[in-house]
Amino acid sequence: MIIKIGNKTIGNGHPSFIIAEAGVNHNGDIELAKKLIDKAVEAGVDAIKFQTFKSENLVTGYATMAKYQKDNIGSEDSQFNMLKKLELSYEEFINLKNYCDKKDIIFMSTPFDFESADFLNSMGVEAFKVGSGDLTNIPLLEHISKYKKPVILSSGMATLGEIEDAIISLKNIGVEEIAVLHCTSNYPAAIETINLKAMNTIKDAFKIIGGYSDHTVGITIPIAAAALGANIIEKHFTLDKTMEGPDHKASLDPEELKEMVISIRKIETAMGNGIKMFSSSEIDTMAVARKSIVAANDIKQGDIITLKDLNYKRPGNGLSPKYYKTILGKKARKDIKEDEQITLGILQD
């Protein structure tokens, strides 16, 4: 199975589709958002993703902040007040989409409500990314399904059964291009909570595009996900980890993002095609490192070759030791000096 997003093909046999998750790390400032786009382009990612919402459609006035949000911000407020500071207007998102088109990077944004989803669809987004918090929001999934565009689901906090429910809700309305990203919804997420093998459990269980959305510190785990076959990798990044806001501390800085992309692409190159065969680059080494059959002692013309007459030494440009049995019992056509390579040409039955 493959998914097409813009000019990118996603699936087995294709490079990992790397999403730089800008999220709300623009802190409600469109100029910072544009700088994030610039850095994402420099890093070589495939797409940059924001979050589109209106706070009044997303949370109640009395919803409290998550523990990680309190810890990362260093203060406590309502979710509504926190999110209100991080909103961008629809007009600003249109501006960002146009900026992404100009910079030749795919624009994506996660909608958190029906209105935001409709707006993103009207902008002509290539695909929809649904956050972990809305995996069980079947009404929103059914609403997004009507657009008949590829859907990428994050699955933090979810069971396999809940993922199945989400996939069924999408397919029931005709969405076939579905990807599910394994995820641990802590910011940052501790290494021991990642359970990276679950990524392929999801992929194999539902025969879909699979990937990983990372919230750990650093780039080690997304690189490991690429080695395990992640079709999609998503990672938060920021301009400066010390900025005020809920997600900066669990994000990469621009240089780390660039290093992650470089490392993932190296991993993909190293994975190869899976066929075990010597590389053309090894041919010279083969002659040097492998061994040939040589005489263990001086052998006279007419002598019968026995096991005690054989030794195995470099270089490997002669008869391979694996053929030693084929020359046992044969006669030497000529005198053979110690360490001289023994070949079939200098033997007779």
From TrEMBL:
Query: Can the keyword Transferase be found in this entry's annotation?
Result: yes
UniProt-listed InterPro entries = AFP_Neu5c_C_sf, Aldolase_TIM, NeuB/NeuA, PseI-like, PseI/NeuA/B-like_N, SAF, SAF_AFP_Neu5Ac, SAF_PseI/NeuA/NeuB
The Swiss-Prot or TrEMBL record annotates one GO molecular function as: N-acylneuraminate-9-phosphate synthase activity
Spell out the SUPFAM superfamilies in the cross-references. AFP III-like domain, Aldolase
Q: Which UniProt keywords apply?
A: Transferase
The AFP-like domain sits at 292-349
Q: Which GO terms describe its biological process?
A: carbohydrate biosynthetic process
- Protein name from the UniProt record: N,N'-diacetyllegionaminic acid synthase
Q: Give the matching Pfam families.
A: NeuB (PF03102), SAF (PF08666)
| Gene name as annotated | legI
This entry's Enzyme Commission designation comes to 2.5.1.101
